[in-house]
Amino acid sequence: MKILQLPKITDERGNLSFIEGNKQIPFEIKRVFWIYDVPGGEVRGGHAYRENQEFIIALSGSFDVVLNDGKNEQRFNLNRSYYGLYVPSMIWRSMENFSTNSLALILSSTKYSEEDYIRDLEQFITTLQ
Ligand code: TYD
Fold this sequence. Notes:
The chain is mainly β. It is built from one helix and ten strands; from the N terminus they run ββββββββββα. Helices cover about 5% and strands about 40% of the residues. The protein is globular, with a radius of gyration of 15 Å. The protein binds thymidine-5'-diphosphate. Thymidine-5'-diphosphate binds near residues 31, 35, 45, 47 and 112.
């Protein structure tokens, strides 16, 4: 898990950042989804993936991503569109403190599969052992 800085092409006409799979991030992108219109105080996530890796960007606004590898919990505040958080597989995550009108973009290394989710914290801890 780590924050990665993305290319930022500054321009008087507006700035531009980009990501190519296996270049700025360490996996090929199989899926993209985004989270938006989050009411104040709501929490998303609360699960781990067995295989899926993610890269999370605050395209607009800000939010916190809380990660737990079974030993340590770390909180990352994302608030710039040229930074992202790389989350490997088998990390428990949740997202909270969404600002008004925030937009979270998530790049995923696998297609959606409910079987890949671990939604029970105790099962996550057991699976790690
Ligand atoms: P989920 O990953 O549980 O949301 P959260 O961000 O809170 O962890 O997904 C919520 C619902 O959306 C769930 O029923 C599955 C569905 N979903 C898809 O169908 N495809 C996807 O790519 C994603 C991410 C979710």
